[in-house]
Design goal:
By secondary structure, the protein is of the alpha+beta class. β3 and β4 form a beta hairpin. α1 crosses α2. The N and C termini lie far apart (31 Å).
């Protein structure tokens, strides 16, 4: 699948409707950083499977949620689980969520 800018914008608009607004930073959690989620005051949690065009996490310990909340009083957008090339994902699929997070950070920080 080829991901377009329109698909990135569709995701950003969907997440805005879910209440995700003005995150300061984006974080990607893998297995080793999973416990960081316990330090976040979660405001919104959206399963990857509910986000348009998003891949779904396949690794057992990757929860597959996009988390929005406060980490030490800083609004963050956190990927609770990531995607790997060895799982059969293309590089476009792997980088798509990062492009979406980047679009939200740019859109809402202006």
């Amino acid at each position: 699948m080829i991901y377009s800018l329109a698909m990135v914008n569709e995701c950003a608009a969907f997440l805005q409707q879910k209440g995700i607004d003005k995150p300061i930073a984006g974080i990607v959690l893998g297995i080793g950083l999973g416990v960081l989620i316990n330090k976040i005051d979660i405001r919104v949690a959206v399963p990857y499977k509910d986000i348009p065009n998003f891949p779904e996490a396949k690794v057992e310990f990757h929860k597959g949620n996009l988390i929005y909340g406060f980490l030490n009083e800083v609004l963050v957008l956190v990927m609770q689980g990531r995607f790997h090339y060895y799982e059969g994902y293309s590089m476009q699929q792997i980088t798509f969520p990062i492009r979406v997070m980047n679009a939200i950070l740019i859109i809402y920080s202006l």
